[in-house]
Amino acid sequence: MTDSTSHVRDNPRTRPAKAPLSRQAVLAAALALVDEVGYAAVTMRRVAQALDTGPASLYVYVADRDELMAGVYDLALAAVELPGPADGDWRARLELLVSRLIATLGGHDDIALVAITRVPTGPQTLRILEETLTLLRAGGIDDAACPWAADLLDQYVTSSALELAARLRDQRAVTKAEGAAEATEEAMSRAARSELDAVYGELPAATHPTIHALRPAMTTAGRTSNTSAAWKLGVIIDGLLAHHPQP
Amino acid sequence: MTDSTSHVRDNPRTRPAKAPLSRQAVLAAALALVDEVGYAAVTMRRVAQALDTGPASLYVYVADRDELMAGVYDLALAAVELPGPADGDWRARLELLVSRLIATLGGHDDIALVAITRVPTGPQTLRILEETLTLLRAGGIDDAACPWAADLLDQYVTSSALELAARLRDQRAVTKAEGAAEATEEAMSRAARSELDAVYGELPAATHPTIHALRPAMTTAGRTSNTSAAWKLGVIIDGLLAHHPQP
DNA sequence: GTTCGCAACGAACATTGTTCGTCGCGAACA
DNA sequence: TGTTCGCGACGAACAATGTTCGTTGCGAAC
Questions:
Q1: Same domain assignment for residues B52 and B142
Q2: Alpha-carbon distance A15 to nearest alpha carbon in chain B (angstroms)
Q3: Tell me, in Å, how far CA of A55 is from C1' of D13?
Q4: Looking at the UniProt feature table, which residue ranges are given for the DNA-binding region (chains A, B) (predicted)?
Q5: Confidence of residue B17 (pLDDT cuts 50, 70, 90)
Q6: What are the distances in angstroms from CA B241 to CA A139, B29, B99, B157, B232?
Q7: Is the pLDDT of residue A7 over 50?
Q8: pTM value?
Q9: Between residues A74 and A12, the one the model is more confident about
Q10: Domain span at residue B20?
Protein backbone atom coordinates (compact mmCIF):
# COMPACT_ATOMS: atom_id res chain seq x y z
CA MET A 1 0.00 0.00 0.00
CA THR A 2 2.42 2.67 -1.09
CA ASP A 3 -0.34 4.35 -3.01
CA SER A 4 -1.08 7.72 -1.47
CA THR A 5 -4.76 7.40 -2.39
CA SER A 6 -5.15 3.96 -0.86
CA HIS A 7 -7.03 5.30 2.13
CA VAL A 8 -9.57 6.71 -0.29
CA ARG A 9 -9.85 3.51 -2.30
CA ASP A 10 -9.99 1.36 0.78
CA ASN A 11 -12.67 3.39 2.42
CA PRO A 12 -16.02 1.82 1.59
CA ARG A 13 -17.63 5.23 1.63
CA THR A 14 -15.36 6.68 -1.04
CA ARG A 15 -14.87 3.50 -3.01
CA PRO A 16 -16.26 3.77 -6.60
CA ALA A 17 -19.43 1.95 -5.61
CA LYS A 18 -18.65 -1.55 -6.82
CA ALA A 19 -21.49 -4.02 -7.01
CA PRO A 20 -21.57 -6.66 -4.29
CA LEU A 21 -20.04 -9.99 -5.23
CA SER A 22 -22.31 -12.89 -6.00
CA ARG A 23 -22.25 -16.07 -8.04
CA GLN A 24 -24.38 -14.48 -10.73
CA ALA A 25 -22.11 -11.45 -10.90
CA VAL A 26 -19.04 -13.67 -11.26
CA LEU A 27 -20.64 -15.76 -13.99
CA ALA A 28 -21.89 -12.70 -15.85
CA ALA A 29 -18.48 -11.05 -15.71
CA ALA A 30 -16.84 -14.24 -16.95
CA LEU A 31 -19.28 -14.58 -19.84
CA ALA A 32 -18.65 -10.97 -20.86
CA LEU A 33 -14.94 -11.67 -20.76
CA VAL A 34 -15.34 -14.76 -22.92
CA ASP A 35 -16.93 -12.58 -25.58
CA GLU A 36 -14.30 -9.90 -25.19
CA VAL A 37 -10.98 -11.72 -24.97
CA GLY A 38 -11.87 -15.31 -25.83
CA TYR A 39 -12.40 -18.46 -23.82
CA ALA A 40 -8.76 -19.40 -23.34
CA ALA A 41 -7.78 -15.92 -22.19
CA VAL A 42 -10.36 -15.83 -19.42
CA THR A 43 -8.26 -16.26 -16.30
CA MET A 44 -9.30 -16.06 -12.70
CA ARG A 45 -7.26 -12.91 -12.36
CA ARG A 46 -8.98 -11.22 -15.27
CA VAL A 47 -12.42 -12.12 -13.98
CA ALA A 48 -11.47 -10.78 -10.58
CA GLN A 49 -10.09 -7.62 -12.14
CA ALA A 50 -13.34 -7.07 -14.03
CA LEU A 51 -15.11 -7.22 -10.68
CA ASP A 52 -12.53 -4.96 -9.06
CA THR A 53 -11.31 -7.56 -6.60
CA GLY A 54 -8.66 -10.23 -6.16
CA PRO A 55 -8.62 -13.76 -7.55
CA ALA A 56 -9.02 -15.37 -4.15
CA SER A 57 -12.38 -13.71 -3.65
CA LEU A 58 -13.90 -15.68 -6.50
CA TYR A 59 -13.43 -19.00 -4.76
CA VAL A 60 -16.23 -18.20 -2.35
CA TYR A 61 -18.75 -18.55 -5.17
CA VAL A 62 -16.94 -20.91 -7.49
CA ALA A 63 -15.12 -24.18 -6.82
CA ASP A 64 -12.47 -23.83 -9.53
CA ARG A 65 -12.07 -22.65 -13.10
CA ASP A 66 -13.82 -25.70 -14.52
CA GLU A 67 -16.90 -25.17 -12.44
CA LEU A 68 -16.85 -21.47 -13.24
CA MET A 69 -16.89 -22.24 -16.95
CA ALA A 70 -19.64 -24.80 -16.47
CA GLY A 71 -21.70 -22.04 -14.91
CA VAL A 72 -20.89 -19.70 -17.76
CA TYR A 73 -21.94 -22.39 -20.24
CA ASP A 74 -25.29 -22.76 -18.55
CA LEU A 75 -25.72 -19.00 -18.33
CA ALA A 76 -25.12 -18.68 -22.06
CA LEU A 77 -27.79 -21.29 -22.72
CA ALA A 78 -30.33 -19.19 -20.84
CA ALA A 79 -30.62 -16.96 -23.91
CA VAL A 80 -31.92 -19.82 -26.06
CA GLU A 81 -35.64 -19.57 -26.60
CA LEU A 82 -37.56 -22.80 -27.09
CA PRO A 83 -39.50 -23.03 -30.36
CA GLY A 84 -43.26 -22.92 -29.95
CA PRO A 85 -46.22 -24.44 -31.77
CA ALA A 86 -46.14 -21.61 -34.28
CA ASP A 87 -42.76 -22.83 -35.52
CA GLY A 88 -44.16 -25.92 -37.19
CA ASP A 89 -44.11 -29.65 -36.57
CA TRP A 90 -41.62 -31.49 -34.38
CA ARG A 91 -38.98 -31.65 -37.08
CA ALA A 92 -39.07 -27.96 -37.91
CA ARG A 93 -38.98 -27.16 -34.22
CA LEU A 94 -36.06 -29.48 -33.57
CA GLU A 95 -34.10 -28.01 -36.45
CA LEU A 96 -34.82 -24.51 -35.17
CA LEU A 97 -33.79 -25.42 -31.65
CA VAL A 98 -30.54 -26.98 -32.82
CA SER A 99 -29.61 -24.03 -35.01
CA ARG A 100 -30.35 -21.63 -32.16
CA LEU A 101 -28.12 -23.67 -29.88
CA ILE A 102 -25.28 -23.60 -32.37
CA ALA A 103 -25.65 -19.89 -33.00
CA THR A 104 -25.78 -19.06 -29.31
CA LEU A 105 -22.91 -21.26 -28.18
CA GLY A 106 -20.79 -20.42 -31.20
CA GLY A 107 -21.32 -16.75 -30.44
CA HIS A 108 -19.47 -17.10 -27.16
CA ASP A 109 -16.12 -18.24 -28.52
CA ASP A 110 -15.09 -21.72 -27.39
CA ILE A 111 -17.50 -21.96 -24.48
CA ALA A 112 -18.78 -25.21 -26.01
CA LEU A 113 -15.49 -26.79 -24.90
CA VAL A 114 -17.15 -27.13 -21.52
CA ALA A 115 -19.53 -29.73 -22.92
CA ILE A 116 -16.57 -31.87 -23.98
CA THR A 117 -14.68 -31.97 -20.71
CA ARG A 118 -17.74 -32.71 -18.61
CA VAL A 119 -21.39 -33.54 -19.22
CA PRO A 120 -23.20 -30.32 -18.34
CA THR A 121 -26.01 -30.66 -15.81
CA GLY A 122 -27.02 -27.06 -15.19
CA PRO A 123 -30.66 -26.01 -15.11
CA GLN A 124 -30.59 -24.46 -18.58
CA THR A 125 -28.96 -27.55 -20.02
CA LEU A 126 -31.65 -29.70 -18.48
CA ARG A 127 -34.36 -27.39 -19.78
CA ILE A 128 -33.06 -27.83 -23.32
CA LEU A 129 -32.53 -31.57 -22.92
CA GLU A 130 -36.12 -31.88 -21.76
CA GLU A 131 -37.36 -30.07 -24.86
CA THR A 132 -35.12 -32.10 -27.17
CA LEU A 133 -36.38 -35.39 -25.76
CA THR A 134 -39.96 -34.20 -26.01
CA LEU A 135 -39.54 -33.30 -29.67
CA LEU A 136 -37.86 -36.61 -30.41
CA ARG A 137 -40.70 -38.52 -28.81
CA ALA A 138 -43.16 -36.44 -30.78
CA GLY A 139 -41.27 -37.57 -33.88
CA GLY A 140 -41.94 -41.18 -33.05
CA ILE A 141 -38.43 -42.07 -31.96
CA ASP A 142 -38.44 -45.12 -29.74
CA ASP A 143 -38.26 -44.37 -26.03
CA ALA A 144 -35.14 -46.46 -25.53
CA ALA A 145 -33.38 -44.63 -28.35
CA CYS A 146 -34.32 -41.09 -27.36
CA PRO A 147 -31.40 -40.56 -24.95
CA TRP A 148 -28.98 -41.81 -27.57
CA ALA A 149 -30.52 -39.56 -30.16
CA ALA A 150 -30.27 -36.58 -27.83
CA ASP A 151 -26.65 -37.49 -27.21
CA LEU A 152 -25.96 -37.63 -30.92
CA LEU A 153 -27.60 -34.26 -31.47
CA ASP A 154 -25.60 -32.81 -28.61
CA GLN A 155 -22.35 -34.05 -30.12
CA TYR A 156 -23.38 -32.36 -33.35
CA VAL A 157 -24.31 -29.11 -31.61
CA THR A 158 -21.04 -28.97 -29.69
CA SER A 159 -18.85 -29.69 -32.70
CA SER A 160 -20.71 -27.25 -34.90
CA ALA A 161 -20.62 -24.53 -32.27
CA LEU A 162 -16.85 -24.88 -31.98
CA GLU A 163 -16.54 -24.79 -35.75
CA LEU A 164 -18.64 -21.64 -35.89
CA ALA A 165 -16.63 -20.04 -33.11
CA ALA A 166 -13.39 -20.77 -34.95
CA ARG A 167 -14.82 -19.27 -38.12
CA LEU A 168 -15.93 -16.09 -36.36
CA ARG A 169 -12.56 -15.82 -34.63
CA ASP A 170 -10.64 -16.13 -37.89
CA GLN A 171 -12.96 -13.59 -39.46
CA ARG A 172 -12.41 -11.09 -36.67
CA ALA A 173 -8.68 -11.63 -36.76
CA VAL A 174 -8.48 -11.06 -40.50
CA THR A 175 -10.71 -8.02 -40.64
CA LYS A 176 -8.76 -6.52 -37.77
CA ALA A 177 -5.39 -7.27 -39.32
CA GLU A 178 -6.41 -5.86 -42.69
CA GLY A 179 -6.00 -2.33 -41.37
CA ALA A 180 -9.74 -1.75 -41.86
CA ALA A 181 -9.36 -1.66 -45.64
CA GLU A 182 -11.82 -3.38 -47.99
CA ALA A 183 -11.07 -6.83 -46.52
CA THR A 184 -13.96 -8.93 -45.19
CA GLU A 185 -14.71 -11.17 -48.15
CA GLU A 186 -11.65 -11.21 -50.37
CA ALA A 187 -8.93 -11.42 -47.75
CA MET A 188 -10.90 -13.71 -45.50
CA SER A 189 -11.43 -16.43 -48.05
CA ARG A 190 -7.87 -16.19 -49.30
CA ALA A 191 -6.31 -16.39 -45.85
CA ALA A 192 -8.45 -19.32 -44.76
CA ARG A 193 -8.07 -21.09 -48.08
CA SER A 194 -4.31 -20.97 -48.04
CA GLU A 195 -4.42 -22.68 -44.68
CA LEU A 196 -6.32 -25.89 -45.34
CA ASP A 197 -7.01 -26.01 -49.06
CA ALA A 198 -3.33 -25.87 -49.75
CA VAL A 199 -3.01 -29.19 -47.96
CA TYR A 200 -5.86 -30.83 -49.81
CA GLY A 201 -5.22 -29.08 -53.09
CA GLU A 202 -1.55 -29.86 -53.52
CA LEU A 203 -1.98 -33.50 -52.59
CA PRO A 204 -0.68 -35.75 -55.38
CA ALA A 205 -3.31 -37.82 -57.16
CA ALA A 206 -1.03 -40.84 -57.04
CA THR A 207 -1.13 -41.28 -53.28
CA HIS A 208 -4.53 -39.77 -52.49
CA PRO A 209 -6.70 -40.15 -55.59
CA THR A 210 -10.07 -39.59 -53.97
CA ILE A 211 -9.10 -36.45 -52.11
CA HIS A 212 -7.56 -35.21 -55.31
CA ALA A 213 -10.67 -35.98 -57.31
CA LEU A 214 -12.95 -34.35 -54.75
CA ARG A 215 -10.67 -31.35 -54.49
CA PRO A 216 -13.20 -28.85 -55.82
CA ALA A 217 -15.77 -30.00 -53.27
CA MET A 218 -13.30 -29.76 -50.41
CA THR A 219 -12.66 -26.06 -50.72
CA THR A 220 -13.12 -23.85 -47.70
CA ALA A 221 -16.33 -22.53 -49.19
CA GLY A 222 -17.93 -25.89 -48.51
CA ARG A 223 -16.68 -25.93 -44.99
CA THR A 224 -17.55 -22.32 -44.31
CA SER A 225 -21.03 -22.22 -45.76
CA ASN A 226 -23.86 -22.98 -43.41
CA THR A 227 -25.39 -25.10 -46.12
CA SER A 228 -23.12 -27.78 -44.71
CA ALA A 229 -24.61 -27.35 -41.23
CA ALA A 230 -28.16 -27.71 -42.48
CA TRP A 231 -27.16 -30.72 -44.56
CA LYS A 232 -25.57 -32.49 -41.62
CA LEU A 233 -28.54 -31.89 -39.37
CA GLY A 234 -30.82 -33.19 -42.10
CA VAL A 235 -28.71 -36.33 -42.36
CA ILE A 236 -28.94 -36.98 -38.64
CA ILE A 237 -32.69 -36.51 -38.44
CA ASP A 238 -33.29 -38.58 -41.57
CA GLY A 239 -31.08 -41.22 -40.02
CA LEU A 240 -33.09 -41.18 -36.82
CA LEU A 241 -36.25 -41.81 -38.83
CA ALA A 242 -34.72 -44.43 -41.10
CA HIS A 243 -33.05 -46.40 -38.33
CA HIS A 244 -36.27 -47.44 -36.58
CA PRO A 245 -35.36 -51.19 -36.58
CA GLN A 246 -33.42 -52.52 -33.64
CA PRO A 247 -33.36 -50.21 -30.62
CA MET B 1 26.71 -29.12 -10.67
CA THR B 2 27.30 -30.02 -7.06
CA ASP B 3 26.74 -33.68 -7.83
CA SER B 4 29.97 -35.52 -7.30
CA THR B 5 29.15 -37.88 -10.17
CA SER B 6 28.36 -35.08 -12.58
CA HIS B 7 31.64 -35.49 -14.42
CA VAL B 8 30.62 -39.07 -15.11
CA ARG B 9 27.09 -38.18 -16.21
CA ASP B 10 28.30 -35.26 -18.27
CA ASN B 11 30.93 -37.19 -20.07
CA PRO B 12 29.40 -38.49 -23.31
CA ARG B 13 31.56 -41.57 -23.10
CA THR B 14 30.24 -42.66 -19.70
CA ARG B 15 26.77 -41.30 -20.09
CA PRO B 16 24.08 -44.03 -19.88
CA ALA B 17 23.84 -44.19 -23.65
CA LYS B 18 20.81 -42.07 -24.25
CA ALA B 19 19.30 -42.24 -27.70
CA PRO B 20 19.89 -39.21 -29.90
CA LEU B 21 17.08 -36.71 -29.96
CA SER B 22 14.81 -36.60 -32.98
CA ARG B 23 11.28 -35.59 -33.81
CA GLN B 24 10.15 -39.20 -33.85
CA ALA B 25 11.75 -39.85 -30.47
CA VAL B 26 10.02 -36.81 -28.98
CA LEU B 27 6.64 -37.80 -30.40
CA ALA B 28 7.03 -41.40 -29.26
CA ALA B 29 8.00 -40.35 -25.75
CA ALA B 30 5.05 -37.98 -25.59
CA LEU B 31 2.63 -40.67 -26.77
CA ALA B 32 3.93 -43.06 -24.14
CA LEU B 33 3.46 -40.37 -21.52
CA VAL B 34 -0.10 -39.73 -22.66
CA ASP B 35 -0.87 -43.37 -21.97
CA GLU B 36 0.95 -43.31 -18.65
CA VAL B 37 -0.08 -40.08 -16.98
CA GLY B 38 -2.88 -38.77 -19.18
CA TYR B 39 -3.16 -36.09 -21.84
CA ALA B 40 -3.46 -33.10 -19.52
CA ALA B 41 -0.48 -34.15 -17.40
CA VAL B 42 1.89 -34.36 -20.36
CA THR B 43 4.03 -31.28 -19.91
CA MET B 44 7.07 -30.23 -21.86
CA ARG B 45 9.16 -30.82 -18.77
CA ARG B 46 7.91 -34.37 -18.35
CA VAL B 47 8.52 -35.20 -21.99
CA ALA B 48 12.01 -33.78 -21.70
CA GLN B 49 12.61 -35.72 -18.51
CA ALA B 50 11.55 -38.95 -20.22
CA LEU B 51 14.19 -38.24 -22.84
CA ASP B 52 16.76 -37.31 -20.19
CA THR B 53 17.11 -33.73 -21.31
CA GLY B 54 15.76 -30.26 -20.64
CA PRO B 55 12.54 -28.68 -21.90
CA ALA B 56 14.34 -26.21 -24.14
CA SER B 57 15.84 -29.01 -26.18
CA LEU B 58 12.42 -30.09 -27.42
CA TYR B 59 11.83 -26.86 -29.27
CA VAL B 60 14.34 -27.83 -31.90
CA TYR B 61 11.97 -30.52 -33.17
CA VAL B 62 8.63 -29.10 -32.12
CA ALA B 63 7.14 -25.63 -32.49
CA ASP B 64 5.08 -25.65 -29.31
CA ARG B 65 2.91 -27.92 -27.21
CA ASP B 66 0.02 -27.74 -29.64
CA GLU B 67 2.12 -28.87 -32.55
CA LEU B 68 3.68 -31.58 -30.41
CA MET B 69 0.25 -32.96 -29.58
CA ALA B 70 -0.78 -32.74 -33.22
CA GLY B 71 2.20 -34.93 -34.02
CA VAL B 72 1.27 -37.35 -31.27
CA TYR B 73 -2.27 -37.51 -32.64
CA ASP B 74 -1.03 -38.42 -36.05
CA LEU B 75 1.40 -40.94 -34.61
CA ALA B 76 -1.42 -42.65 -32.73
CA LEU B 77 -3.40 -42.91 -35.95
CA ALA B 78 -0.56 -44.84 -37.57
CA ALA B 79 -1.68 -47.94 -35.69
CA VAL B 80 -5.06 -47.97 -37.42
CA GLU B 81 -5.20 -50.62 -40.12
CA LEU B 82 -7.45 -49.95 -43.09
CA PRO B 83 -10.16 -52.58 -43.66
CA GLY B 84 -9.61 -54.68 -46.78
CA PRO B 85 -11.87 -56.36 -49.30
CA ALA B 86 -12.19 -59.35 -46.98
CA ASP B 87 -14.04 -57.20 -44.48
CA GLY B 88 -17.18 -56.91 -46.57
CA ASP B 89 -18.89 -54.21 -48.57
CA TRP B 90 -18.33 -50.50 -48.24
CA ARG B 91 -20.68 -50.14 -45.31
CA ALA B 92 -19.15 -52.94 -43.27
CA ARG B 93 -15.71 -51.56 -44.02
CA LEU B 94 -16.69 -48.04 -43.06
CA GLU B 95 -18.19 -49.23 -39.79
CA LEU B 96 -15.06 -51.24 -39.05
CA LEU B 97 -12.80 -48.30 -39.84
CA VAL B 98 -14.80 -45.97 -37.62
CA SER B 99 -14.83 -48.37 -34.70
CA ARG B 100 -11.08 -48.91 -35.04
CA LEU B 101 -10.55 -45.17 -35.01
CA ILE B 102 -12.61 -44.75 -31.87
CA ALA B 103 -10.89 -47.64 -30.11
CA THR B 104 -7.42 -46.41 -31.04
CA LEU B 105 -7.92 -42.74 -30.20
CA GLY B 106 -9.92 -43.52 -27.08
CA GLY B 107 -7.10 -45.78 -25.94
CA HIS B 108 -4.74 -42.83 -25.72
CA ASP B 109 -6.64 -40.79 -23.15
CA ASP B 110 -7.86 -37.41 -24.41
CA ILE B 111 -5.59 -37.24 -27.43
CA ALA B 112 -8.72 -36.72 -29.54
CA LEU B 113 -8.88 -33.22 -28.07
CA VAL B 114 -6.31 -32.31 -30.69
CA ALA B 115 -8.90 -32.77 -33.43
CA ILE B 116 -11.13 -30.20 -31.76
CA THR B 117 -8.64 -27.38 -31.37
CA ARG B 118 -7.29 -27.69 -34.89
CA VAL B 119 -8.14 -29.62 -38.04
CA PRO B 120 -5.44 -32.31 -38.20
CA THR B 121 -3.51 -32.50 -41.45
CA GLY B 122 -0.84 -35.08 -40.69
CA PRO B 123 -0.03 -37.88 -43.11
CA GLN B 124 -1.87 -40.54 -41.15
CA THR B 125 -4.93 -38.33 -40.88
CA LEU B 126 -4.87 -37.80 -44.62
CA ARG B 127 -4.44 -41.52 -45.21
CA ILE B 128 -7.60 -42.23 -43.23
CA LEU B 129 -9.52 -39.34 -44.77
CA GLU B 130 -8.63 -40.72 -48.19
CA GLU B 131 -10.01 -44.12 -47.26
CA THR B 132 -13.15 -42.66 -45.71
CA LEU B 133 -13.93 -40.63 -48.81
CA THR B 134 -13.30 -43.64 -51.03
CA LEU B 135 -15.71 -45.77 -49.02
CA LEU B 136 -18.35 -43.04 -49.07
CA ARG B 137 -18.09 -42.73 -52.82
CA ALA B 138 -18.34 -46.48 -53.13
CA GLY B 139 -21.56 -46.19 -51.13
CA GLY B 140 -23.03 -43.89 -53.72
CA ILE B 141 -22.82 -40.70 -51.71
CA ASP B 142 -22.85 -37.66 -53.96
CA ASP B 143 -19.43 -36.20 -54.68
CA ALA B 144 -20.38 -32.78 -53.40
CA ALA B 145 -21.63 -34.29 -50.14
CA CYS B 146 -18.68 -36.59 -49.46
CA PRO B 147 -16.53 -33.99 -47.65
CA TRP B 148 -19.48 -33.05 -45.46
CA ALA B 149 -20.16 -36.68 -44.73
CA ALA B 150 -16.52 -37.27 -43.82
CA ASP B 151 -16.70 -34.22 -41.58
CA LEU B 152 -19.79 -35.57 -39.86
CA LEU B 153 -18.17 -38.94 -39.32
CA ASP B 154 -15.08 -37.25 -37.94
CA GLN B 155 -17.16 -35.31 -35.44
CA TYR B 156 -18.69 -38.58 -34.37
CA VAL B 157 -15.32 -40.32 -34.08
CA THR B 158 -13.81 -37.52 -32.01
CA SER B 159 -16.73 -37.25 -29.62
CA SER B 160 -16.97 -40.99 -29.16
CA ALA B 161 -13.24 -41.35 -28.61
CA LEU B 162 -13.36 -38.74 -25.86
CA GLU B 163 -16.33 -40.49 -24.32
CA LEU B 164 -14.49 -43.80 -24.41
CA ALA B 165 -11.38 -42.24 -22.91
CA ALA B 166 -13.41 -40.76 -20.07
CA ARG B 167 -15.00 -44.14 -19.43
CA LEU B 168 -11.65 -45.92 -19.33
CA ARG B 169 -10.23 -43.23 -17.05
CA ASP B 170 -13.08 -43.55 -14.59
CA GLN B 171 -12.75 -47.30 -14.70
CA ARG B 172 -9.04 -47.17 -13.94
CA ALA B 173 -9.59 -44.66 -11.16
CA VAL B 174 -12.23 -46.79 -9.50
CA THR B 175 -10.41 -50.11 -9.76
CA LYS B 176 -7.33 -48.40 -8.38
CA ALA B 177 -9.19 -46.75 -5.53
CA GLU B 178 -11.00 -49.92 -4.57
CA GLY B 179 -7.87 -51.28 -2.93
CA ALA B 180 -7.76 -54.10 -5.48
CA ALA B 181 -10.79 -55.80 -3.93
CA GLU B 182 -13.58 -57.35 -6.01
CA ALA B 183 -14.45 -53.99 -7.61
CA THR B 184 -14.52 -53.72 -11.39
CA GLU B 185 -18.20 -54.22 -12.12
CA GLU B 186 -20.11 -53.55 -8.93
CA ALA B 187 -18.23 -50.51 -7.70
CA MET B 188 -17.72 -49.08 -11.13
CA SER B 189 -21.35 -48.94 -12.06
CA ARG B 190 -22.37 -47.63 -8.67
CA ALA B 191 -19.79 -44.84 -8.64
CA ALA B 192 -20.54 -43.72 -12.16
CA ARG B 193 -24.28 -43.96 -11.64
CA SER B 194 -24.31 -41.76 -8.58
CA GLU B 195 -22.65 -39.06 -10.62
CA LEU B 196 -25.03 -38.47 -13.51
CA ASP B 197 -28.05 -40.64 -12.89
CA ALA B 198 -28.66 -38.89 -9.61
CA VAL B 199 -29.23 -35.71 -11.59
CA TYR B 200 -31.59 -37.29 -14.08
CA GLY B 201 -33.19 -39.63 -11.61
CA GLU B 202 -34.14 -37.16 -8.92
CA LEU B 203 -35.57 -34.65 -11.37
CA PRO B 204 -39.20 -33.86 -10.52
CA ALA B 205 -41.76 -34.99 -13.06
CA ALA B 206 -43.55 -31.68 -12.76
CA THR B 207 -40.80 -29.58 -14.29
CA HIS B 208 -39.15 -32.18 -16.57
CA PRO B 209 -41.79 -34.75 -17.46
CA THR B 210 -40.03 -36.30 -20.45
CA ILE B 211 -36.68 -36.78 -18.72
CA HIS B 212 -38.58 -38.24 -15.80
CA ALA B 213 -40.55 -40.61 -18.02
CA LEU B 214 -37.44 -41.72 -19.89
CA ARG B 215 -35.49 -42.14 -16.67
CA PRO B 216 -35.01 -45.90 -17.00
CA ALA B 217 -33.55 -45.42 -20.48
CA MET B 218 -31.20 -42.68 -19.35
CA THR B 219 -29.25 -44.78 -16.90
CA THR B 220 -25.50 -44.96 -17.18
CA ALA B 221 -25.82 -48.43 -18.61
CA GLY B 222 -27.19 -46.92 -21.78
CA ARG B 223 -24.41 -44.43 -21.97
CA THR B 224 -21.71 -46.90 -21.13
CA SER B 225 -22.71 -49.73 -23.39
CA ASN B 226 -21.16 -49.78 -26.81
CA THR B 227 -24.55 -50.71 -28.18
CA SER B 228 -25.09 -46.98 -28.11
CA ALA B 229 -22.01 -46.39 -30.24
CA ALA B 230 -23.09 -48.89 -32.87
CA TRP B 231 -26.58 -47.44 -32.89
CA LYS B 232 -25.33 -43.90 -33.44
CA LEU B 233 -23.07 -44.93 -36.28
CA GLY B 234 -25.96 -46.82 -37.85
CA VAL B 235 -28.10 -43.71 -37.64
CA ILE B 236 -25.50 -41.58 -39.36
CA ILE B 237 -24.92 -44.00 -42.22
CA ASP B 238 -28.62 -44.59 -42.68
CA GLY B 239 -29.05 -40.85 -42.74
CA LEU B 240 -26.38 -40.48 -45.39
CA LEU B 241 -28.24 -42.97 -47.57
CA ALA B 242 -31.69 -41.52 -46.90
CA HIS B 243 -30.68 -37.91 -47.43
CA HIS B 244 -29.80 -38.29 -51.11
CA PRO B 245 -32.00 -35.37 -52.25
CA GLN B 246 -30.49 -31.94 -52.36
CA PRO B 247 -26.72 -31.93 -52.08
C1' DG C 1 43.84 -26.70 -39.32
C1' DT C 2 40.57 -23.38 -39.03
C1' DT C 3 35.89 -21.92 -39.11
C1' DC C 4 31.21 -22.02 -38.89
C1' DG C 5 26.45 -23.91 -38.19
C1' DC C 6 23.49 -25.69 -35.16
C1' DA C 7 21.82 -29.03 -31.67
C1' DA C 8 21.73 -29.02 -26.72
C1' DC C 9 20.86 -26.93 -22.57
C1' DG C 10 20.87 -24.10 -18.11
C1' DA C 11 18.59 -20.39 -16.40
C1' DA C 12 15.21 -17.29 -16.31
C1' DC C 13 10.54 -14.88 -17.19
C1' DA C 14 5.86 -14.07 -17.26
C1' DT C 15 1.49 -16.29 -16.12
C1' DT C 16 -1.39 -19.60 -14.60
C1' DG C 17 -4.74 -21.87 -10.84
C1' DT C 18 -5.18 -22.36 -6.17
C1' DT C 19 -4.43 -22.07 -0.93
C1' DC C 20 -3.43 -19.98 3.51
C1' DG C 21 -3.94 -16.71 7.13
C1' DT C 22 -5.63 -12.40 8.43
C1' DC C 23 -8.74 -8.57 8.60
C1' DG C 24 -12.96 -6.40 9.43
C1' DC C 25 -17.83 -5.65 8.69
C1' DG C 26 -22.40 -6.87 10.16
C1' DA C 27 -25.71 -9.66 12.30
C1' DA C 28 -27.03 -12.43 16.33
C1' DC C 29 -27.13 -12.65 21.08
C1' DA C 30 -26.93 -11.37 25.98
C1' DT D 1 -26.65 -1.24 24.07
C1' DG D 2 -22.25 -3.88 24.23
C1' DT D 3 -19.98 -8.10 22.99
C1' DT D 4 -19.03 -11.89 20.21
C1' DC D 5 -18.72 -14.61 16.40
C1' DG D 6 -19.27 -16.18 11.55
C1' DC D 7 -17.89 -15.48 7.21
C1' DG D 8 -17.00 -12.76 3.03
C1' DA D 9 -13.03 -10.30 1.21
C1' DC D 10 -8.37 -10.19 0.09
C1' DG D 11 -3.10 -9.70 0.12
C1' DA D 12 0.54 -12.65 -0.40
C1' DA D 13 2.56 -16.57 -1.62
C1' DC D 14 3.41 -21.25 -3.88
C1' DA D 15 4.11 -24.66 -7.18
C1' DA D 16 3.89 -25.49 -11.89
C1' DT D 17 3.31 -24.28 -16.66
C1' DG D 18 4.95 -22.89 -21.71
C1' DT D 19 8.38 -20.52 -23.88
C1' DT D 20 12.68 -17.62 -24.86
C1' DC D 21 17.43 -16.11 -24.48
C1' DG D 22 22.32 -16.65 -24.56
C1' DT D 23 25.98 -19.69 -24.17
C1' DT D 24 28.50 -23.93 -24.99
C1' DG D 25 30.62 -27.35 -27.48
C1' DC D 26 30.64 -30.96 -30.93
C1' DG D 27 31.11 -32.19 -35.74
C1' DA D 28 31.33 -31.37 -40.51
C1' DA D 29 32.87 -28.55 -44.32
C1' DC D 30 36.19 -25.69 -46.53
A1: no
A2: 42
A3: 13
A4: 43-62
A5: very low
A6: 20, 42, 19, 19, 14
A7: no
A8: 0.89
A9: A74
A10: 6-62
